[in-house]
Amino acid sequence: MYTCGVDVGSVSTEAVILCRDNKDSNAKGRIVSYVIIPTGASSKDAALKAFEEACMKASVSKEDVYSIVATGYGRINIPFANKNITEISCHARGVLNYFSGIKTVIDIGGQDSKVIKLDGFGSPVDFLMNDKCAAGTGRFLEVMARALEIKLEHFGEIFTKTNEKVDISSTCTVFAESEVVSLIGQGIDKNKIIRGLVYSIVNKVISMVERIGLEEPVCMTGGVAKNLAVVKALEEKLGVKINIPEEPEITGALGAAYLAK
Ligand SMILES: Nc1ncnc2c1ncn2[C@@H]1O[C@H](COP(=O)(O)OP(=O)(O)O)[C@@H](O)[C@H]1O
Ligand SMILES: [Mg+2]
Q1: pLDDT (tens digit, 9 = 90+) per residue, 119-148?
Q2: Which of 37, 61, 93, 115 could make an SS bond with 255 (beta carbons 3.0 to 4.6 A apart)?
Q3: Is the minimum distance from the CB of 173 to ligand 1 under 6 angstroms?
Q4: What is the DSSP letter of 244?
Q5: Which CATH entry fits the domain spanning 2-98+249-259: 1.10.10.10, 3.30.420.40, 3.40.50.2300, 3.90.25.10?
Q6: How far is 89 from 93, CA to CA, in rounded Å?
Q7: Crossing angle of helices 190-212/228-238, nearest 10°?
Q8: The pTM is what?
Q9: 184 CA distance to ligand 2 centroid (A)?
Q10: Does the beta carbon of 9 lie inside 6 Å of ligand 1?
């Protein structure tokens, strides 16, 4: 039996097809395919495209997918989904597939960041979310990467290039971008600017972690978990090891596919 989870985010939409032995949501399933595509202007179209592509990749016909759960900010308006479930529950369930006993999930996506406290068995007990401001999210890093003309994928390398950082004083994304442009104009080493930007986002996330209370083991999900500079800075400041799923960006969709009954 196949189930599907679709996570419609502000930046990317993911679909995961799971092969399940039975209808028990706790049973371990097998990921038969997944896709990650840009969401673009229509979350409805992106959701359908991701679902169809994931079916194609898995060589499964759409009719063979028994149940579909939508999650993410665009989850409400997905006509082909049987149900929609919050990202909090889906990320909580998704991390269970990779690690057991996780107590804290840090999820940084394109437009929001969340810290979820779990009971250690995949159920959320508390969470905090910042969805009011782009600072502290993947979008902040995207804007800065563009200004610096550096690929986000290369941010991780800065930790081998410099130990120094330039503090970014603006908390707002728009003002921080102007600050970065002005720093580049002054000829400041880009690696130092990136380090400053990484600590700026990390400090915002840490203030949420402190409010909710840090409990190990810790896992990070969402696209920003692929940014090694952010992960390293978080580990250093929190003083803990952070577990990263093989493909952190699909965690929400994977959890949704598990919760599809
Ligand atoms: N390969 C990568 N390296 C570094 N950062 C990445 C990479 N892929 C995605 N990201 C980051 O992930 C963010 C999108 O995360 P995602 O969880 O997909 O958000 P959403 O749920 O809003 O779609 C981007 O804004 C970007 O900062
Ligand atoms: Mg996404």
Answers
A1: 999 899 999 999 888 888 999 999 999 999
A2: 93
A3: no
A4: -
A5: 3.30.420.40
A6: 6
A7: 50
A8: 0.94
A9: 30
A10: yes
